[in-house]
Protein: Phospho-2-dehydro-3-deoxyheptonate aldolase
Organism: Fontimonas thermophila
Amino acid sequence: MSPQHFSDWSPTSWQQHPAAQQPQYPDAKALSDAIERLRQLPPLVTSWEVDALRAHLARAQQGDGFVLQGGDCAESFADCRPEIITNRLKVLLQMSLVLVHGLRSRVVRIGRFAGQYAKPRSAETETRDGITLPSYRGDLVNAPEFSASARTPDPQRLLEGHARSAMTINFVRGLVDGGFADLHHPEYWDLDWVQHSPLAAEYQQMVDALGDSVRFMETLAGRPIGEFSRVEFFTSHEALLLWYEQAQTRRVPRKEGWYNLSTHFPWIGMRTAELGGAHVEYCRGIRNPIGVKVGPSMTAEWLCELCRVLNPDHEPGRLTLIHRMGADRIGTHLPALIEAVRRAGHRVLWICDPMHGNTISTPSGLKTRPFEKILSEVEQAFVIHRACGSRLGGVHLELTGEDVTECTGGARNLSPADLERAYRSTVDPRLNYEQALELAMKIVKLAA
């Protein structure tokens, strides 16, 4: 981006703008000390990884690739365990294998992990039995237990979040570099609890076909092809808690500008996408590729101005628009937004988040998402983009590799009553492994 774009920006300039969704820390000095300590810690990602992702997204924007972004709605410190991280990686690998095989295209893998520890809330406080306490805003801020001590925002959690993110990234890198993602051995990615899945046979056929293709290519080349032994993985999280993002924003030797080195791909949520707000101000100045959630309340004028502010030089790969309309509203709202962005000449990558617009509550009060609504939104997104002369370049999903029952429907046709068996999310419902893999298989057919 042009130097003029940064002339009035710094990592702290967001503090001069209205900042939504920020916790109220009771001890200003403790917050300042924690931010200073965080600023001195090593970065979690590197600038060349960030630049590599931006190049991948630029190719996907041109039609050469498909983005798979997925992971937990909100990570918890307690889930920073090897088996949970491994299962999360497995489901993304298996979904990407299905997409690579079916789409015959590159897949850009971006995990919603190693930093997704903060969540926006619709209310500042929560009241139970006449007692009012601050809302739970994710483990980066406070704890879910309903007590005054647990719900008080604690700046030490910023440091804990950095440590847990570092452990997660280190473990994922170790798995990938050690051959866990080797395309010669996709059987490494199996999850024990789904060996009797209704989708197992179809998936195994894909595994066998891909293995045959790898061996055929290596026979032609006359040697093993190293690229088949590992895959690239990138991290992402919502750039919500700006004190945390600020502390990890740095200059890099021999490169211009500032990089957020807490993640490869930060995004702005709908609750914090207001023009003139602190989150847009912060994100406009960093060199990372940026995502923006686009909901049904966003107008064409608002979206086009966001595009202008966040990507004034129309840099390829810089800006990804993640639409999250809901299956019942996507047909009404999305076409006009696509047309407005196209008419204004903005260069963006469009991907679909079919999760957030399809949340409902069961009679017992559990939040869930019907699989048929999730699938319907993806189906409609492909159709709408084609009709508008655009292209759907990816999906953004909340999912887990655990045997949870949080979304209804899917291959096993989970009912609202089934949710009680293994509902574990503290925030939003996630697709389990079977549902995620089924959705990947459906996407292949929709994109054909």
